[in-house]
Specification:
It is built from 13 helices and 21 strands. It is α/β, with parallel strands linked by helices and 454 residues long.
Length: 454
Amino acid sequence: MTVSVASTPALGPDASTGSSADRDGLSVWPRSATAAADADVLVGGVSLTEAADRFGTPVYVLDESEVRERCRSYRTAFPEADIVYAAKAFLCRAMVRWVQEEGLGLDVCSAGELALAAATGFPPERIVMHGNAKSPEDLGSAVRLGVGRIVVDSTSEIARLAAIVPVGSRQQVMVRVVPGIAAGGHTKVQTGTEDQKFGLSITDGSAQHAVARVLAQPRLELVGLHCHIGSQITAVKPYLAAVRRMTGLLARIRDQHGVQLPQLNIGGGHGIAYRPGEDTLDVSVLAGRVRAELEEGCHRADLTVPRLTLEPGRAVVGPAGVVVYRVLSVKRTGSRTFVAVDGGMSDNPRPALYGVRYSPRLIGRHSVAPPDLVTVVGRHCEAGDVLADDVPLPGDVRPGDLIAVPAAGAYHLSMASGYNLVGRPPVVAAANGIARTLVRRESLDDMSRRDVGL
């Protein structure tokens, strides 16, 4: 695959793809996406039809240049901050390398994610360890490998962590705070509210108690506070509210303990568009307003302005990915048309979990048939295995056709399962007209090897 395509300028995570892409219906696709004369679409100069033939379907295609540009745009918007990529959105060895080369840190949530990063050579001091219920293996690996910061999420974790830090050493930690702010695209991803599993509340005093306990541990060094208010957030105001509450807590810690904490982590959760016309978070606007809010709040409280950390994940990799499926069947029942593809909830559970809506596109052949509203469903034995409900596709869609779904780079493979023993799809990187495998397709043999009992 050596098809070339003109390079695109580096743009911010919130930027549109421009009027040409809008005319072609590609506004939520990777910026490099171009419509070909044969109804194909090129991503990173790679034909999606050829990628489907070469690698099989389903297949994830990830635009490497777009991932890198989005990393750079965060560094441009927040030059004074630490930008830490949230690995839970999507992680593989190549992604670790891209993030490292673009100057970002890495946020991991398990010993498994940490081990992959370490095996790829990522500097451990630039890693942040998260998790509301870290296992002994998680904490032990983080301390042993020298992770830069561990985010404490419960009071029980404090003594457990302090006990495994070697004598004469100090582990930098942050306390995850619940600021009491509801934000996010779905109730299941609103993590800044009271009465949910993450963090320690300001309201009931848990956060203040945890701060005091960390300060009393000689092997722990409290370097700052952390909060994450939710995911798929497209408005700036919730972040400003979080900054105000966190600044107030920093001032109270200074007054009660005589300590000015040097860091403030405001998490990620920056929203992207999954369908044309949807809102995205303007990161350049976010940067200016967060900076102003933090500086003004610190000035009023007579605090030194802490160094910011942000943890974008979806906004870095989500818009850079496309998944390609092959149609297996078309079934018309009553007033509905079901288009079944060779993937489904095993490679994308998000519609079933959060009601996410996508904008699929027929690729690889021209159709003059008027569009019909159809429901794109998966191959799995669940009525809820729906990838896209009531979406327009050509009325003559048929078995063998290819359907591509954009905005598929985040929380697809990372949340994929082995349901019905359907192997997880491969991930292919597209760059400069060349496609290469990053993660191979999971085979039946891979799954069979784990089954050792008779």
